[in-house]
UniProtKB/TrEMBL annotation:
<dbReference type="InterPro" id="IPR051558">
    <property type="entry name" value="Metallophosphoesterase_PAP"/>
</dbReference>
<dbReference type="InterPro" id="IPR006311">
    <property type="entry name" value="TAT_signal"/>
</dbReference>
<feature type="domain" description="Calcineurin-like phosphoesterase">
    <location>
        <begin position="50"/>
        <end position="275"/>
    </location>
</feature>
<keyword id="KW-0732">Signal</keyword>
<keyword id="KW-0378">Hydrolase</keyword>
<protein>
    <submittedName>
        <fullName>Calcineurin</fullName>
    </submittedName>
</protein>
<dbReference type="Pfam" id="PF00149">
    <property type="entry name" value="Metallophos"/>
</dbReference>
<dbReference type="GO" id="GO:0016787">
    <property type="term" value="F:hydrolase activity"/>
</dbReference>
<dbReference type="InterPro" id="IPR004843">
    <property type="entry name" value="Calcineurin-like_PHP"/>
</dbReference>
<dbReference type="InterPro" id="IPR029052">
    <property type="entry name" value="Metallo-depent_PP-like"/>
</dbReference>
Length: 358
């Protein structure tokens, strides 16, 4: 809930005097109550489930609210068991701290009524400093991890984690990772998050070991940055048309995906580009399929990348996706959204039955 009279972000900027102290106390009480008295929505324990996919949502704009309202209508109609947020959860720079009112205005309020665990990962706009979207201040991500303890919906226990459903004999396992230290628009000054630093090595080892150990029939790696992408940001290794350097090009994102994920997980789910894309598996990717779903609040145009074959894509419309998963197949339904009416339109259905190594 947003504080009365003055926002948490304004308080942190030094606005307010006595009124600031009163409002700060109110926000603190609310957060403590949530942390100590609100249970997390439970991870489902079932072998067939529906999973809502959104990305790049956290603007607080009417467009975000329209897409969330449309998704809520679909969830009420079809049922939903989990949701996934693919980064850029709090535009433009990420939260100031765990009590930032933007968690309410850009996540809780739009998604009210979609009462399931939201598996979240960090994007470049969640970990930025002076330059919006730079990805150059990873410490801001700590606030989103801490918010895991303050929300029934928000699920981000760490920068990388996995969730298997059901826990016994899992049909699917989701592996969330943080790709921003590998693809920021500025150099990382914190040695921990250098492209060749301790965090990157630890995350890579964790992901490789976790994928190898997983007993799930279907495996999804989800992160903000895509491996392949026909939108304007481009493919990993050539983001923004840049092919040199250790950060902006995303060449180390490409290396992580190709060396650790391809041939080990059936799907990569990503945002970053404000588009909707269901790409094919591609001969060079060992059965790993890229899905881009980053149009939950903004849209962006297409770049000419004929090497990435599409099953379906939309580049100039808002929307979201829904996965229906059981032991035998994964169905991906894409929905476009009219921001004026908050109505959804079913646009495409893709069904996959082949599993890697099956």
């Amino acid at each position: 809930m947003q504080s009365q009279g003055i926002s948490r972000r304004a308080m942190l900027a030094g606005v307010g005097g006595v009124g600031t102290a009163v409002a700060l106390g109110a926000v603190g009480w609310q957060a403590a109550a949530a942390e100590n008295g609100t249970a997390k929505f439970p991870i489902p324990d079932k072998s067939e489930l529906n999973v809502l996919i959104t990305g790049d949502a956290g603007t607080g704009t009417p467009e975000q609210f329209a897409v969330a309202a449309a998704a809520r209508k679909l969830c009420e109609k079809r049922g939903v068991d989990l949701a996934i947020g693919l980064g850029d959860n709090i535009y433009e720079n990420g939260p100031e701290d765990v009590l930032d009112d933007e968690f309410s205005t850009k996540f809780e309020e739009p998604n009210k009524g979609i009462d399931v665990p939201w598996l979240m990962v960090l994007g470049n706009h969640d970990t930025s400093g002076i330059i919006p979207g730079s990805g150059g201040r990873p410490s801001r991500g700590d606030h989103e991890i801490a918010y895991h303890q303050h929300s029934a919906r928000w699920y981000m226990p760490d920068r990388h984690y996995s969730v298997a459903v059901p826990q016994q004999d899992p049909v699917v396992e989701f592996f969330g990772i943080d790709t921003t230290p590998l693809s920021s628009y500025v150099l990382q000054t914190d040695p921990e998050y250098h492209w060749d630093g301790p965090f990157v090595h630890k995350q890579r080892a964790w992901l490789a070991d976790s994928l190898a150990a997983s007993r799930a029939r279907w495996k999804f790696v989800f992160a903000h940055h895509p491996l392949r992408n026909n939108g304007t940001h481009g493919n990993a290794g050539a983001y923004e048309g840049i092919t040199c350097g250790d950060y902006m090009s995303g060449k180390h994102v490409k290396k992580l995906y190709e060396e650790v994920v391809c041939g080990k997980a059936e799907f990569i789910l990503s945002g970053h580009d404000h588009t909707l894309q269901i790409l094919d598996t591609g001969a060079d990717y060992q059965g790993t399929q890229q899905i881009v779903c980053g149009a939950a609040a903004k849209t962006k145009g297409k770049a000419n990348r004929p090497e990435n074959k599409e099953f379906w894509a939309a580049y100039d419309t808002l929307g979201f996706m829904m996965l229906s998963i059981n032991a035998g197949r994964v169905v991906t339904d894409a929905y476009t959204v009219d921001p004026e009416t908050a109505d959804y339109q079913h646009a495409y259905r893709h069904t996959r039955t082949d599993r890697i190594g099956a």
